[in-house]
Amino acid sequence: MSKKILILPGDHIGPEIMAEAVKVLERVDSLYSLDLQLDHALLGGAALDATGVPLPPETLAKAREADAILLGAVGGPEWDKVEAARRPEKGLLGLRSELELFGNLRPALLYPQLAAASSLKPELVAGLDILIVRELTGGIYFGEPRGIRTLENGERQGYNTYVYSESEIRRIGHLAFSLARQRDKRVCSVDKSNVLEVTVLWREIMEEVAKDYPDVTLSHMYVDNAAMQLVRAPKQFDVLVTGNMFGDILSDAAAMLTGSIGMLPSASLDKDGRGMYEPCHGSAPDIAGQGIANPLATILSVAMMLRYTLDKPEAAAAIEAAVSDVLDQGLRTADICAEGDTRVSTSEMGDAVLRALQS
Ligand code: IPM
Ligand code: MG
After folding, report:
1. What are 48-78's pLDDT values in tens digits?
2. Cβ of 324: how many Cβ atoms within 10 Å?
3. How far away, in angstroms, is 137 Cα from ligand 1 center?
4. Which ligand 1 atom is at minimum distance from the Cα of 104?
5. Atom 12 in ligand 1: which residue has the minimum CA distance?
6. Alpha-carbon distance 179 to 183, whole Å?
7. How many CA atoms lie within 13 A of 116 on its CB side?
8. Quick one: residue 215, left, alpha or beta (phi over 0 = left, psi -120 to 50 = alpha)?
9. Measured in angstroms, how far is the CA atom of residue 248 from the centroid of ligand 2?
10. Into which CATH architecture does domain 1-100+282-359 fall?
11. What is the rounded end-to-end Cα distance, in angstroms, of the chain?
12. Residue 92, ligand 1, Cβ within 6 A
């Protein structure tokens, strides 16, 4: 049966990296007879400029229909002055929330060919393979009430609400534990339960969920310590599970361990495994239009889509092998290029992956 894939290129380097990922997607579609139907829509700043809102109803309708969504990146300084409710990021957050994509998988995997590009010493990161499981539709990102109010003394006060219900914690817990089962069977839950009640509950529910997975080991860590441990001895972790904001921050730190955030894909899944796939990096306005962005995170997001939503693990593995192959050939975009490497453009990198897929 044919599967619908919605393509949302987004802003700045978004369309550049997406063009390469779509080339790869179309190639695996024909190599593996996947019968995919690709459609496009606007999201973020591009949507705001064209329609006045960052998540147009047409995009949301197409997103609801799609089996999977492939997203580039949204945002940029030209929309900094737009009011909070219509910012490009709201388009992304709205999509996550409307589609209930609560489970965000952010693997931090070091390709051995890139060990020298890591900000840590090669011996600290050699063989690194962490999976951050970030809760994506709750926590302080979505808690109400929120806003900026004026107090009686005339001073303004900004406020947000950090809330998690038991069911929200439980479902992300189950996702993390079931993923750990396919890996090294260790889950570290990250919280701030020495200060925040919401994460006291988080810790309690994680303990409860753990009982269903006697073969998986659960540990707990405060978020400040987790940030330190990630840059001190990152290989101690297998699966990290945490809330929305802590996950946002820790996943950027983990990304740098692997050499470049330009290498990291992500998946955002709903309870049925439908998902949105996107690189972990942003829209990089500073390098847009120069053809130098690294398309590999988006290409690897296609691999995650094949694995988690389309259930085509052999096609996913073929893409991952092709990426490894081009790195073996010494081909590098600017962000991961060191002395002795061959520097290639965004589209040359995409073409190299296509060639490696073919062989
Ligand atoms: C991410 C990004 C988003 C987030 C922004 C663009 C809203 O940083 O996906 O990590 O904070 O979730
Ligand atoms: Mg982030």
Report:
1. 999 999 999 999 999 999 999 999 999 999 9
2. 14
3. 12
4. 9
5. 248
6. 7
7. 10
8. alpha
9. 4
10. 3-Layer(aba) Sandwich (3.40)
11. 28
12. yes
